[in-house]
């Protein structure tokens, strides 16, 4: 009898421990796109995986210390913004005019407060500006020079635009410009075809994002990007648009998207996932798969990372690869690139 009880108790303890282990506390991405192993050197692959691990560790340290999920997503995004590997902050892609115009957003799942900035060229860490918009202004979104003035006023680090130059991204722009001019010649200057070439969808990967669940059960999501190579006319993508590329709600999930922004905007992907969970009672996995399929049907590509209020995670994408990683409550880190 006693032995039987002991067995049941240990079995329950073991199951509880196993469940605890499987609870995810953070998920991140470093962009989705035509990321193929054949185009990657082992050194570059290790550099990406190492940075993803570093970002996850930075976020996890915040959660472990009992800090809010907002601090965790901010910490992870900062690591990736400061790395030239990703299309955010230091490694941002170039616009058609040879500038780096960045977008970022952050959202608090507990209060549904959000902050975002778009088209900024001098703020070293766009995610800090997005958070300041949320916490230190009465607005949700600021753009361009106004956002930069605000960031300067509150003491964020302002840099010369040349800080964001990287040879890889510059070469990416030159390639896109060459492709554009070939297209324009072939189309004999047909206006609508020219406009189709305003962004280069194969040279955009590297947007960064994070979703975290803290010890108090609060979710937060953050996304930061340079947008798409060769973008024109002050184009803004989905990342800073609350509900399109970024969303968090304690009642459902936190979501950060990456991919061809125009399609994520039109499909309102991040909020669509939350709404399906809230109104149709779909699971995180089901809702994310459906939202991505709807976006894909319109002709878009990309992926997303999402974490629900129970610690379930999903990372669907319809591209060749997506830089991504997770960390569980016990600190176990897992990072991946390809399918
Ligand atoms: N979604 C971003 C944008 O369209 C780009 C990306 O995620 O690669 O601006």
TrEMBL record:
Residues 1-18 form the signal peptide. The record marks 206-207 as: Cleavage. One of its GO terms (molecular function) is peptidase activity. Keywords: Autocatalytic cleavage, Hydrolase, Protease, Signal. InterPro entries: Ntn_hydrolases_N (IPR029055), Peptidase_T2 (IPR000246). One of its GO terms (biological process) is proteolysis. Substrate binds at residues 235-238, 258-261. The active site is at 207 (nucleophile). The keyword Protease applies. The keyword Protease applies. PANTHER family: L-ASPARAGINASE (PTHR10188), N(4)-(BETA-N-ACETYLGLUCOSAMINYL)-L-ASPARAGINASE (PTHR10188:SF6). This is Isoaspartyl peptidase. It comes from Pedobacter antarcticus. The lineage of its organism: Bacteria, Pseudomonadati, Bacteroidota, Sphingobacteriia, Sphingobacteriales.
